[in-house]
UniProtKB/TrEMBL annotation:
PROSITE patterns attached to this UniProt entry: CDP_ALCOHOL_P_TRANSF (PS00379)
InterPro entries reported for this sequence: CDP-OH_P_trans, CDP-OH_PTrfase_TM_dom, CDP_ALCOHOL_P_TRANSF_CS, CHOPT
Keywords associated with the record: Membrane, Transferase, Transmembrane, Transmembrane helix
Location of the protein in the cell: Membrane
GO CC entries: membrane
Family (UniProt): Belongs to the CDP-alcohol phosphatidyltransferase class-I family.
Lineage, top ranks: Eukaryota, Metamonada, Carpediemonas-like organisms, Carpediemonas
Name recorded for this polypeptide: CDP-alcohol phosphatidyltransferase
Pfam families the record matches: CDP-OH_P_transf
Gene Ontology terms: biological process: phospholipid biosynthetic process
Transmembrane segments: 62-84, 96-115, 153-177, 198-218, 224-242, 263-283, 295-313, 320-336, 342-364
Length: 388
């Protein structure tokens, strides 16, 4: 970890401050607010997480951000093993490792959920809570959401545009939650929520698939049920978030039909990116036949960047601008591919490298800027000073 800290400190050549001085002032006064109404969380998960941190005496030398990162690495490990067991996402390409890999996905996702739960408890225990920690946690969650979406679709054996549609549905659940938090300044988890019951449901689905195989989900009728469930669930999630935003506006005497419309249209940049990917898959079917993961991760990483922007603006209270040069990159790549001037694979590679390149530049600079402003280490615990 010391080596990583040194490398972060040497990244001045990449320096770009994405947060203004005014935003920094607001960031320093930021306080996290959350509501969790889940019965499972209250009576099962929270006691379990507290048991790990306090009863098992999790070392106070373990930094909360290190716990968060370890959770991401667990998901990345399971994703890579599943990729090896089914490189094409097509059920016909599954090899002997597929069922064990899906079982590993369940274990690793539970590990991620647990580590994601205890990082905040560890931060409070060691008095190392910070805006950087909040950003780090939410940013990792957004990244993990994409990996879990792809590996879940792979485990279910769904391919083609149906796979892309489900990917977008799973991403929009997280988008809606972040959008709501931006406006209400409260992370709201209802009696049934994605981070609790949603993840547990996916874990049980992994174990079920590992036991009987992905063939259970084969067939047009069952696929139709899954698509309808994904669409209705996403619409319900967005509607719930929008209703809570309107309630917050009313409570602060700022509600108007024009304001509600303006807020709802903030989802348009996300919809344009998702729609571009879907249209690209229709125009060139080989995209979802030959390179489904690449297309999903190209569009998905652009969505993650917009999510991170929303998280930052929520913490810094800066103006939220969601239209981004990556809209032009992805739309332009689709148009270039339409004319078949260059090989489709090359066009998709360039678009994906630009999206991921910008993402890494954005995240690294944010982390470096925040750690410098706050005077803390990313992966080391700040020592607690005891008053005599």
């Amino acid at each position: 970890m010391e080596a990583i800290e040194k490398h972060l400190s040497k990244l001045e050549v990449l320096k770009h401050n994405y947060i203004s001085e005014g935003g920094i002032e607001n960031l320093l006064n930021h306080r996290y607010n959350g509501v969790d109404l889940s019965i499972v969380s209250k009576y099962v998960l929270q006691p379990f997480w507290n048991w790990i941190v306090y009863d098992k005496k999790l070392s106070p030398q373990i930094a909360p951000n290190l716990i968060t990162t370890t959770g991401f690495l667990c998901v990345l490990l399971s994703y890579l093993v599943l990729f090896i067991s089914c490189p094409s996402m097509d059920p016909e390409g599954q090899n002997f490792l597929f069922r064990p890999a899906v079982f590993l996905c369940g274990i690793c996702l539970f590990a991620y959920q647990t580590l994601d739960g205890i990082d905040g408890i560890q931060a409070r225990k060691t008095k190392n809570g910070s805006p950087l920690g909040a950003l780090f946690d939410h940013g990792i969650d957004a990244l993990v959401n994409g990996f879990v979406a792809v590996q879940t679709i792979t485990a279910m054996g769904i391919t083609g545009l149906g796979a892309y549609f489900l990917y977008v549905c799973l991403m929009f659940g997280f988008i809606a939650s972040t959008w709501e938090e931006y406006h209400t300044h409260v992370l709201y988890l209802g009696k049934i929520s994605g981070p609790v019951e949603g993840i547990l449901g996916i874990i049980f689905a992994y174990f079920f698939i590992a036991l009987i195989g992905s063939g259970f989900f084969a067939g047009g009728f069952r696929h139709a049920i899954i698509y309808i469930f994904g669409l209705v669930g996403t619409a319900f999630y967005i509607r719930g978030s929008f209703d809570r935003i309107k309630t917050s506006l009313v409570a602060h005497n700022t509600y108007s039909s024009a304001e509600a419309k303006r807020i709802f249209l903030q989802l348009a940049p996300f919809a344009v990116l998702a729609g571009t990917g879907f249209l690209w898959g229709i125009i060139n079917p080989t995209m979802m036949q030959n390179w489904p993961r690449m297309l999903m991760f190209t569009v998905g990483q652009a969505l993650v960047i917009l999510i991170c922007r929303m998280i930052i603006c929520s913490i810094t209270k800066e103006e939220l601008i969601l239209w981004h040069p990556l809209h032009g990159v992805i739309i332009g790549a689709m148009l270039v591919d339409c004319f078949r001037v260059f090989p489709s694979f090359l066009v998709l590679c360039v678009a994906m490298l630009v999206a991921w390149g910008y993402y890494f530049h954005y995240v690294i600079n944010l982390v470096v800027q925040l750690k410098n402003v706050l005077g803390i280490k990313v992966f080391k615990v700040k020592p607690v000073i005891h008053n005599e």
